[in-house]
Amino acid sequence: MQCELFRSSLKFEDYYSPRQNVVHERYNFFSCVQLEGQTIESYVTHLKTLATTFEFPEQENGLIRDRIYLGIKDSGLQERLLRENNLGLEKAIEIIRQLKRARNKSATSNLKDGFWHVPLDEVSSESCTFNTLFGRYKFNKLPFEIVSAPEVFQKKNQKLFGGIEGVEIYFYDIIVAGYNEDLHDAIMSKALERARSINIKFNPDKLQYRVSEVKYVGQIISKSGINPDLDHIKAVDAMPTPKSKTEVRRLLGMVNFLSKFIPNVSKVTAPLREIILENVEFNWGKEQELSFVNIK
């Protein structure tokens, strides 16, 4: 009799236990955003907990990484993550931690002589031959005019400095970040030693050292977050009404640099983009004027 009761209870649980609503669980995951004041560690832990409730184990890390892209509060961090190729979950978290660290004590500078830090091999040097009145010459270092030069330069710098924790480099601009002065100075020493070993020089006029608010890649990084550089905002405010397609393109270029800080920027600038098309005659009307005013 006891055996029969036990078998019946198993059958009851099989048929009447609450079933998981997979669609609802996925909705909770894909709509999860970082809360105000929530640390990245807490946010990732919460995402991992939500991810275990639906059946995508082989895709879990990729989904969490993508959700971090979309769910973090800081638009500056989003932009930094989107610049990375083949970015995994752990790398994404580490980049966020480094940039968060930059808001405590930071130093920035930029590389002096830029592309000329990159030597060319013989084949590449021959390809960079140019004519003058005095004969033909060739570049021994990477010239500025080559289309692929920025990409080559960035990859080389990333290889040289990317392995130092607390260091980020974007083309010419390098930032060193630490939670406190001692850590900041230790990381700075590593970066300087690495630069010295390969004869890379920094521009002393662009040095910002041991600061809690730093200007980096046209943005202001501080404890309060990432904000636009006021100089860029003033430049847009000071622009007169465009009189040609060229001037509209110049305006849109400046606005695009600040786009992550402008809500609905695509919608706001749509009337301006319409009048710079090749087959459209330039005509500054009420819609363009309203768009121009709204941008400012």
**Total E-strand runs:** 9
N- to C-terminal distance? 82 Å
Strand content: 5-15%
Broad structural category: alpha+beta
Q: Which of globular, elongated, flat, extended, rod-shaped describes the shape? A: globular
EC number: 2.7.7.49
Domain Reverse transcriptase: 104-221
GO molecular function: RNA-directed DNA polymerase activity
InterPro entries: DNA/RNA_pol_sf, Retrovirus_Pol_polyprotein, Rev_trsase/Diguanyl_cyclase, RT_dom
Supply database-style keywords.
three-stranded antiparallel beta sheet; four-stranded antiparallel beta sheet; alpha+beta; 296 residues
Explain the overall architecture.
GO terms for molecular function: RNA-directed DNA polymerase activity. This is RNA-directed DNA polymerase. It is an enzyme of class 2 (transferase). Its EC number is 2.7.7.49. Helix 3 packs across helix 4 and helix 11 runs antiparallel to helix 12. The protein is 49% helix and 13% strand. The longest helix has 17 residues. The chain starts with a helix and ends with a helix. The strands form three sheets. The protein has a four-stranded antiparallel beta sheet with strand order 4-5-1-6. It has a three-stranded antiparallel beta sheet with strand order 7-8-9. A two-stranded antiparallel sheet has the order 2-3. With 296 residues, it is of the alpha+beta class. The chain has 13 helices and nine strands.
